[in-house]
Write a structure and sequence with these properties.
Blueprint lengths: L5 E10 L2 E11 L4 E5 L6 H9 L6 E6 L2 E2 L10 E4 L11 H13 L9 H4 L1 H20 L15 H13 L5 E5 L7 H18 L2 E6 L2 H7 L2 E6 L2 E6 L1 H6 L4 H6 L6 E8 L2 E4 L2 E6 L6 E7 L4 E4 L7 E11 L2 E7 L7 E7 H9 L6 E6 L5 E3 L11 E2 L5
Parallel strand pairs: 3-8, 3-9, 6-7, 7-8
Antiparallel strand pairs: 1-2, 1-4, 4-5, 9-10, 11-12, 11-14, 12-13, 13-21, 14-20, 15-19, 16-17, 16-19, 17-18
Helix pairs in contact: 2-4, 2-5
């Protein structure tokens, strides 16, 4: 199987007086795994449905493999879609649910009627070929032992795998997935996330995946297109989305622990927080007010009295396996709370050495700090460590 590229050009969608999509442009490479990530109502599922042909565009165009499919019916687009609700036929076995797309495409209505196999060698041969293909797909998805069961006899994860099998049995060039894991528990989501990633690597199909779960997006994707209010605000590799968000809104959305937002000013390249000079310089930033964005891991706890940018009262410690998140009172910095994340062993070492008690001394790691303009745009030049005496 070989994936095809998708080109989305200036796609708009109006519904009533609202503009659901505001001129979306996106190029998806053949064989790529691209995720549309964003909050509910941002337009990501609408865009997916328009690629599938279920919804019509108000304006713009969609090409798959260089072919304009904007006006084509769904069955002629060479795409397969997996829905959040699975959409399985409850009266059919797993085998029939997986194989039904092949029956519909290879056999006429008369040939699908009961008893047709008794009258035609061609029909019998076609059904045998379909059964062989279904068996291969079922084996790939660990469903072979369930082929005779019906959906009501399956777990949520098994039903989802059947829906995936029904989609890939057609060998489409584009695979569309609309929040396929949202109805599953956390452990099963992790398992199926790995299975979908493995399927993508084996198949070479182009995957376009929709989710509001950033963990899914970051773990599975070649690139992530972050959507907000009907537009794509950034499309990049997961690491870049996280480390160099184009806007403050992107930085707020991405990250398992919220980014810290500190009100700062820049004067002659020096970054000031609460009228105190930090160990940071922004030599290319004009004087003015900014927001300093600090991921929780961009703050390092240091021994009391050491080279700290500030010391804050400790409010709460949250353990989550190998990571520890500290929540400190940020009133002295002009914010409500500030969050720090570190490895559990480092936290234990600092606490045993007296470096963490009811107060925490913190130093900003300049290489990970982000500076946003008053309009929320990322300042392109990275921050630097201030030189001694400056």
């Amino acid at each position: 199987m070989h994936g095809r590229g998708i080109k989305i050009a200036n796609v708009r969608k109006h519904f009533g007086g609202s503009e659901i999509l505001q001129g979306v442009d996106l190029d998806i490479q053949p064989g790529e795994f691209l995720t549309l990530l964003g909050p509910s109502g941002c337009g990501k599922s609408t865009l997916l449905r328009m690629i599938a042909g279920f919804d019509q565009l108000s304006s713009g165009s969609i090409h798959i493999g260089g072919r304009d499919i904007t006006q084509l019916p769904p069955k002629k687009r060479d795409v397969a879609m997996v829905f959040q609700s699975y959409a399985l036929y409850p009266h059919m076995t797993v085998a029939r649910n997986i194989g039904i797309p092949l029956e519909m495409s290879r056999l006429s209505f008369r040939q699908r009627l009961p008893g047709s196999r008794l009258l035609s060698r061609h029909v019998r041969q076609t059904y045998r070929e379909i059964e062989q293909t279904v068996a291969k797909v079922a084996d790939q998805l660990d469903l072979k032992h369930l082929l005779d069961r019906k959906p009501a006899q399956l777990s949520g994860g098994q039903r989802q795998r059947v829906a995936v099998g029904r989609a890939i049995v057609r060998q489409p060039s584009v695979f569309l997935m609309d929040e396929p894991l949202s109805n599953l528990d956390a452990k099963l989501r992790t398992q199926l996330r790995e299975e979908i990633s493995d399927l993508h690597r084996r198949s070479g199909i182009t995957f376009l995946y929709v989710t509001h779960d950033q963990t899914e997006a970051m773990a599975m994707s070649s690139r992530v297109a972050l959507m907000q209010s009907g537009r794509i605000v950034q499309c990049a590799r997961p690491q870049e989305i996280y480390n160099r968000p184009s806007e403050l809104a992107v930085a707020r959305f991405v990250g398992s622990v919220a980014i810290n937002e500190l009100p700062v000013t820049v004067v002659n390249g020096q970054v000031l927080l609460a009228q105190r000079a930090l160990n940071l310089r922004a030599p290319e930033a004009p004087d003015g007010s900014y927001t300093l964005g600090l991921r929780p891991e961009s703050l390092d706890a240091v021994p009391q009295g050491g080279d700290a940018d500030f010391t804050l009262p400790l409010l709460h410690v949250e353990f989550s396996g190998s990571e520890v998140t500290l929540r400190c009172d940020g009133a002295a910095l002009g914010i409500d709370r500030i969050r720090i994340q570190m490895r559990a062993e480092r936290f234990d070492r600092l606490r045993s050495d007296g470096g963490i008690d009811d107060r925490v001394a913190l130093r900003i790691l300049a290489q990970n700090a982000l500076l946003f303009s008053s309009s929320g745009q990322l300042m392109p030049a990275p921050l630097k460590v201030a030189e001694a005496g400056r």
